[in-house]
């Protein structure tokens, strides 16, 4: 009897580490995303528009509450579940996964970790219900990798208010977010503080960044702050320096590693399916040695990525994950992802450059995932300092 074909990109069965109930819940989520979200993805990506009907669909899934049980459904899910949820989102569409990640991971995570109890209770319930959408404004026009030391956006306290001046760039959800978590340098003590800024605040202007070749549905914005006044009650009370900001980034950096895995897995799935159905020279191209070589290299990368992100999640759950370990995971997985999507696009030949076959979108989107949350070079220097004790930062 012929052995059953193994079509699962989780070749070593890492999903078996989840509980039965978690696997069942993920299967339901996958079915819902495929049915309700997937049809919105390519048309929105093609037009570089955000499909706002997706917000209501995400809200029905209660997607924003999975990581925050005290404000969601009260069910405590494992750290590993969060990783596999990211895979499912990215297998559907990386742009909509970024929308969700900015809202739930960066914006809500900043409020949960940086706000006091009153602030958490004030903002998070509406954000879990997706009645209010969040954004995260850290990167600046002249400060990406060096924003920690070179942040130019300033905050000046005047009585019970803060006056913000400066500019932020590449802010996902920035054109329509109701609440923007803004990081600015306090003029008084030169330390970074966090603020939650409403979209209608006078002195705040957001402009969509046009002409992107990746994550086209994500509405990235240039945001300018011109004498924008923010009440002290909207300053995140537990943020006192960039070290506090870095705690949020360390967690989301690990999340990007899972995102890279989801992108790579979907590219592999598309390539494998195409290889067994596309015929040339009288047989499926999957029957040729060079095509099988591409597929196996993709699968090898994915399996190696799985091992790293699963272990990182275990360390995170135990409270033992370091920023250097998150940096290594981000640098390694995004590099391997980049290889996988390139091989997948190559396998499709000319069909790999048109949206009809999906792989072109994943090929393009991978470039953004490779770049954000710290470039490969910056994450390499973080790890390099950790293993040598010597800083090579300029």
Report on this structure.
The protein is an alpha+beta fold and 394 residues long. It folds into three domains: 115 residues, Acyl-CoA dehydrogenase/oxidase, N-terminal domain (Butyryl-Coa Dehydrogenase, subunit A, domain 1); 106 residues, Butyryl-CoA Dehydrogenase, subunit A, domain 2, CATH 2.40.110.10; 146 residues, Butyryl-CoA Dehydrogenase, subunit A, domain 3. 52% of the residues lie in helices and 14% in strands. It is built from eleven helices and nine strands. Strands 1, 2, 3, 4, 5, 6 and 7 form a seven-stranded mixed β-sheet that branches. A two-stranded antiparallel sheet has the order 8-9. Strand 2 and strand 3 form a beta hairpin. Helix 1 runs parallel beside helix 3, helix 7 packs parallel to helix 9 and helix 8 runs antiparallel to helix 9. It is globular, with a radius of gyration of 21 Å. 45% of the residues are buried.
CATH class bucket of the largest domain: Mainly Alpha
Strand count, sense and closure of the main sheet? 7 strands, mixed
Morphology call: globular
Distance between the termini: 62 Å
The portion of residues assigned to helices is 40-55%
Give the oligomeric state: single chain
Mean pLDDT: 93
Which structural class fits the helix and strand makeup? alpha+beta
Number of helices: 11
Give the SSE order as H and E letters.
Answer: HHHHHEHEEEEEEHEEHHHH
Q: Which homologous superfamily in CATH is the superfamily of the largest domain?
A: Butyryl-CoA Dehydrogenase, subunit A, domain 3
CATH topology (fold) name of the largest domain: Butyryl-CoA Dehydrogenase, subunit A, domain 3
Q: Outline the low-pLDDT stretches.
A: none
CATH architectural group of the largest domain: Up-down Bundle
- Count structural domains: 3
Count of beta strands:
9
Question: Which range does the strand content fall in?
Answer: 5-15%
Radius of gyration of CA atoms, rounded to a whole number: 21 Å
């Amino acid at each position: 009897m012929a052995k059953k074909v193994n079509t699962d990109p989780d070749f070593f069965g890492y999903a078996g580490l989840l509980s039965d109930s978690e696997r069942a819940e993920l299967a339901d989520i996958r079915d819902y995303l495929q049915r309700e979200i997937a049809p919105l993805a390519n048309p929105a990506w093609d037009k570089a528009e955000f499909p706002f009907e997706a917000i209501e669909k995400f809200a029905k899934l209660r997607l924003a509450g999975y990581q925050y049980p005290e404000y969601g459904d009260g069910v405590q899910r494992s750290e590993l579940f969060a990783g596999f949820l990211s895979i499912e989102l990215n297998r559907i569409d990386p742009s909509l996964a970024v929308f969700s990640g900015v809202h739930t991971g960066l914006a809500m995570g900043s409020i949960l970790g940086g706000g006091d109890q009153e602030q958490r209770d004030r903002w998070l319930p509406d954000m879990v219900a997706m009645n209010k959408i969040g954004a995260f404004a850290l990167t600046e026009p002249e400060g990406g990798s060096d924003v920690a030391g070179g942040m130019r956006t300033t905050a000046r306290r005047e009585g019970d208010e803060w006056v913000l001046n400066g500019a932020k760039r590449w802010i996902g959800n920035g054109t329509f977010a109701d609440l923007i978590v803004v990081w600015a340098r306090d003029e008084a003590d030169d330390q970074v503080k966090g603020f939650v800024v409403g979209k209608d605040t006078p002195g705040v202007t957001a402009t969509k960044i046009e002409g992107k070749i990746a994550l086209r549905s994500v509405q990235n914005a240039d945001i300018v702050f011109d004498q924008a006044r923010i009440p002290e009650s909207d300053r995140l009370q537990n943020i006192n320096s960039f070290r506090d900001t870095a705690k949020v980034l360390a967690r989301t950096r690990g999340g990007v590693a899972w995102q890279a895995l989801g992108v790579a897995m979907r590219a592999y799935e598309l390539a494998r399916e195409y290889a067994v159905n596309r015929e040339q020279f009288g047989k499926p191209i999957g029957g040729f040695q060079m095509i099988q070589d591409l597929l196996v290299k993709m699968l090898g990368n994915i399996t190696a990525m799985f091992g790293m992100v699963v272990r990182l999640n275990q360390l995170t759950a135990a409270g033992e994950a370091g920023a250097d370990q998150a940096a290594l995971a981000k640098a390694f997985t995004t590099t391997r992802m980049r290889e996988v999507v390139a091989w997948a696009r190559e396998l499709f030949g000319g069909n790999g450059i048109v949206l009809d076959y999906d792989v072109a979108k994943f090929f393009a989107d991978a470039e953004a995932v490779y770049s954000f949350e710290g470039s490969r070079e910056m994450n390499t220097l973080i790890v390099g300092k950790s293993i040598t004790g010597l800083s090579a930062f300029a």
